[in-house]
Amino acid sequence: MSAIAVGCIVFALVFSSAMLAMAVHTALPEHHLSTDSKDVVKLGTALIATMAALVLSLLIASAKTAFDTRSNQLVQASADIILLDRALARYGPETKESRSLLQRSVAGTVERIWPTEGAKRVTIDPGASPIEAVYDKIEALSPQSEAQRSMQSQALILAADMGRTRLLLFEHLGSSIPVPFLVVLVFWLCIIFASFGLFAPRNATVIAVLCVCALSVSGAIFLILELDRPFEGVLQVSGAPLRAALAQLSH
């Protein structure tokens, strides 16, 4: 399920909890609306609100850190691609096929993750690594001089680093947030908003404020889910580093 769909569901649940509580208010006996009852409800709501705020802040910070890590790994992979191509070019014309394979691999990756407008998005397969084919071709080279042996060794190290980075980037493409964890958090938010609506006056201003608050918390969950899936959805890691590397390979 997309992050937008989850965010809409959370908004509907949270806002409807407040509206339902406002409707229940009129059916409650008078002693349930006493000052002592209100104080207990406020204390319980404050406890739940504190836990929910801590969890939301930690989730946003964790998701943002994971997003930045993926972005930095992509920049590192792009730099390794350029360095690998230069090492192969220094080796000699024998690496023409390896360089061509490297260029096709990068172009294919860019098209799969960031397809051109109107093109169909292709599912990424973490197990299918084109870098392994490049590594095998480099390993099969027969250096004739010390300089070529040095370039081959450097190219093998860079290819291995690229393979490792690719695994780190694409090994876990699904959401890392457990569904039960998200369900509990939404349950807490519904309780908080129900307590808001229980003692709130029934007028347009209050309903508008509750709607804005519900949009805010559902927006926070939307951001968490979007940052947790950096290669899909509205918020994606930038493909500019890989495109820049591909442009240099084309020269």
Describe the protein's topology.
Blueprint: H1 3-25, H2 35-91, H3 96-113, H4 130-139, H5 146-170, H6 179-198, H7 204-228, H8 240-249
Q: Could you provide a short overview of the structure?
A:
By secondary structure, this protein is an all-alpha fold.
Describe the overall structure:
There is one protein chain. The chain is mainly α and 251 residues long. It has eight helices and no strands. The chain has helices at residues 3-25, 35-91, 96-113, 130-139, 146-170, 179-198, 204-228, 240-249. Helix 1 (3-25) packs antiparallel against helix 7. The longest helix is centred in the first third of the chain and has 57 residues, at 35-91. The radius of gyration is 27 Å and the shape is rod-shaped. The model has no long low-confidence stretch (mean pLDDT 84).
In total, the number of strands is 0
- Terminal Cα span: 41 Å
The secondary structure category is mainly alpha
The percentage of residues in β strands lies in under 5%
| Mean of all residue-level pLDDT scores | 84
Radius of gyration over C-alpha positions, nearest whole angstrom: 27 Å
Count, helices? 8
Low-confidence stretches: none
Largest sheet: none
Rough shape? rod-shaped
Following the backbone from N to C, one meets helices and strands in this order, namely HHHHHHHH
Please give the share of residues in helix. Answer: over 70%
Please supply descriptive tags for the structure shown above.
251 residues; 0% strand; single chain
